[in-house]
Known about the structure:
Elements: H1 2-13, H2 16-19, H3 25-52, H4 57-74, E1 82-83, H5 86-98, H6 106-128, H7 140-163, H8 173-182, H9 189-208, H10 214-233, H11 235-238, H12 260-292, H13 298-313, E2 321-322, H14 324-332, H15 339-359, H16 364-378, H17 381-390, H18 392-407, H19 410-429, E3 433-439, E4 448-450, E5 462-468, H20 476-489, E6 496-500, H21 509-524, E7 528-532, H22 540-544, H23 547-551, E8 556-557, H24 560-567, H25 573-576
Parallel strand pairs: 5-6, 6-7, 7-8
Antiparallel strand pairs: 1-2, 3-4, 3-5
Amino acid sequence: xxxxxxxxxxxxxxxxxxxxxxxxxxxxxxxxxxxxxxxxxxxxxxxxxxxxxxxxxxxxxxxxxxxxxxxxxxxxxxxxxxxxxxxxxxxxxxxxxxxxxxxxxxxxxxxxxxxxxxxxxxxxxxxxxxxxxxxxxxxxxxxxxxxxxxxxxxxxxxxxxxxxxxxxxxxxxxxxxxxxxxxxxxxxxxxxxxxxxxxxxxxxxxxxxxxxxxxxxxxxxxxxxxxxxxxxxxxxxxxxxxxxxxxxxxxxxxxxxxxxxxxxxxxxxxxxxxxxxxxxxxxxxxxxxxxxxxxxxxxxxxxxxxxxxxxxxxxxxxxxxxxxxxxxxxxxxxxxxxxxxxxxxxxxxxxxxxxxxxxxxxxxxxxxxxxxxxxxxxxxxxxxxxxxxxxxxxxxxxxxxxxxxxxxxxxxxxxxxxxxxxxxxxxxxxxxxxxxxxxxxxxxxxxxxxxxxxxxxxxxxxxxxxxxxxxxxxxxxxxxxxxxxxxxxxxxxxxxxxxxxxxxxxxxxxxxxxxxxxxxxxxxxxxxxxxxxxxxxxxxxxxxxxxxxxxxxxxxxxxxxxxxxxxxxxxxxxxxxxxxxxxxxxxxxxxxxxxxxxxxxxxx
Length: 604
């Protein structure tokens, strides 16, 4: 027993010990193949994403070498591949340029490493604190809205490279577009041609040759076209800007700025990056886990992502997260264990040793063409259309997040999206549906139906109301107002209220107090308040607080049938005697002073 407990503790600290015994020749072979595929895919992505982040291209490759290894060993997903991503790269760029850091400079790189360390610490603390469920409060529409806005910002940021036009650093979305439009006549047509050719080649190769690395093919094609143009027209005439020499091929030890001023200055942006990174990683891990039938531990994923960024910040890596593209390819390529991500990072290191010198000859406009395609693919048009059709509230959240991403700080856009998601959720939760019901005579089973759907006869003494939603401090006032409007105002002669409670999932102390007060009010009217089908878990506060006992144990029923058998005999005979509706089967036992009244009884 002690050995098993020790094993569990070790697996909690070192989660890779759980799947390591499954490693064999078969899994290693499958993981190697998947790793090689991933290494080829991430090479152009790493270069492109680092450019989006305002960092030298090699830093994207460093991130793709270190981050995946740590995240794979300490995360819970067997297929998630971490590393540089477009959205986080853009947030890093936006956060640092707003602080006045010039992209590509030593100050910019130092701040990027520091913000990565802080983001990793936030993620690790949330994971250790078992706060993985926090991610459930971030609606997917927030992610979609933010990603769409980020995609537009990325595309806009690359237009200056595609057109080879100068744009002041840190310009807003509107100011950048204005600058480009006013200077469009100065466009370098050679740069534009190379960029568009690269973009079209990437689209073409993806469409007709989906199994080959289309981004790699596009970058090679763009570079060859640039070389040909320079041979024909001359380098000075073409005037194409190149990525330039890539210094340092392997990840180098680095030291983030740990000064108090730097940490406090970057903390807010780092938390937004941490949150966004966790949303990406957990969402991707769960998406793939639904196919692989694997159970994902959100807290462990937080820890894995946090450690990968913490360790990475000391090895020249900037903030990373899970990549949907690389993770999906990893799964489709047949990866069996997280070793596939480790192999991909190691093989990438080997490849970089060979091709790093060639990166210097990549035209920046060709990089812009590739990044435009990557950014466009970030926009989930299908999901956005579905949201717009199905929910006004969710559509508003998505649009608000999208607009905020374009005009406000990126971290504020995420916060606004989450805030409005919670506001709309609480608004919905605080206004549960309250509807009048009655037995339908035309239904062979005499099932209860909402009166909003069809007009039905009702008992003059009893009103049935169905409540769908929780009765808690935020909804008590709404429920109370609905009851007074539907019952007290429309049917003042009713003295007995039956709440059809199958749709009630939770009743807190405030809700329990309200139930007790309502029970007393209906008792004073000469009838009572009754509940049918109230789930036991929803009665927990009622029972523990003694509210159920005070209301009366005989006021709670499992079904409407049992409730009617107990309630109908208590109805006032003087009213029943002249009632021509008699909609309940139990009405046949009540006195009757009108013709054929007994034949109108129905079975509920």
